[in-house]
Amino acid sequence: MGPAYSIVVPDKDLLSRLCGTNDSNLDLIEKYLGVPVYAQGNELSVPDDNPDVTRQFHAIIDRLIDEANAGFDVNPEMLSSILQFPDEQNFDSLSISIPGSSKKVYPKSKNQAELIKSMRQNDMVFCTGPAGSGKTFLMVAEALRLLLSHEKKTIILSRPIVEAGESLGYLPGDLEQKINPYLRPLFDGINSLLPSTTVRKLIDLGAIETAPLAYMRGRTLNNCVAVLDEAQNTTQEQMKMFLTRMGEGSKIFITGDMTQIDLPKKNQSGLIHAVQILKSIPEISIINFNSKDVVRNPLVRKIVKAYENE
After folding, report:
1. What pLDDT does residue 295 have?
2. How far from the centroid of its chain's Cα atoms is residue 175's Cα?
3. Is there a smaller number of Cβ atoms within 10 Å at the N or the C end of the chain?
4. For residue 239, what is the enclosing H or E element?
């Protein structure tokens, strides 16, 4: 090896975390920089013949060390996000740290980063896009951050219930048991970020509340985060009703997929209508995801792309 630019990592455990399982992190850094990365003794190094490469290398390792020292898992997901936004001065503004969780949520595309920024800056945010693009997960993660950092008192999770064509009254169990299947995708996100005992406690305390859209009429939502999922299945009247529930100190997050509308043909989607008539209001943010944002599985991205091109 010729002249090298090296960074000394005094803690062997930290060095191991930076390298990743089977040097998976180093492999990603090598691919990004286009030069080999060496781990020797207690040093990480790259060839010292390109100032831009050494500058980027130093910035990446510094960022990873900061994250590791903060107690977060230095995994390929985190690293991939850092490499996507190398010039971001305040990387924490792009990620979601949830108190009580060892996980940190990172954007995996520029649109995902834009959504995170919008949720911080605006009190009402719409996000549309295909299945697997992370829109619901990011909204739930930000809602948990706001709740557990005591910025908001309650999370309210809601969805329109239209899929089965059945009235809730005909379904077995109490209200929570009846609507749980519909809210499962929202709770999948919550349960992946917090221990199940913590989630149950938050529900029992009323800090996380579930409510079918039809049960929102007449309420005023103060000091909370209200997340409306599958909003493409709202009617115009339902969407207007939900949006006007917004009270003091609240944030409203709305997500949906314009291509998966289950409403009867005669009803226009309330989501499509709302996005059209509210797009000129500067305090409302509207983010549109596409197939490039699909992160669920590479095959899902190809499927979504095929339907977009049909």
Report:
1. 66
2. 28
3. C
4. helix 236-243
Residue 122 has which token pair? 């605006």
Question: What is the 3-state secondary structure of the chain?
Answer: CCCEEEEECCCHHHHHHHHCHHHHHHHHHHHHHCCCCEEECCEEEEECCCHHHHHHHHHHHHHHHHHHHCCCCCCHHHHHHHHHCCCCCCHHHHCEECCCCCCEECCCCHHHHHHHHHHHHCCEEEEECCCCCCHHHHHHHHHHHHHHCCCCCEEEEECCCCCCCCCHHHCCCCHHHHHHHHHHHHHHHHHHHCCHHHHHHHHHCCCEEECCHHHHCCCCECCEEEEECCHHHCCHHHHHHHHCCECCCCEEEEEECCCCCCCCCCCCCHHHHHHHHHCCCCCEEEEECCHHHCCCCHHHHHHHHHHHCC
**What per-residue confidence (pLDDT) applies to 205?**
95
- Could you say which residues of the chain have pLDDT below 70? 1-2, 86-93, 162-182, 295-298
225 contacts 126 by C-beta, under 8 angstroms = no
**pLDDT, position 165:** 44
Six-digit token string for 65? 């060390």
Q: What is the pLDDT of residue 229?
A: 93
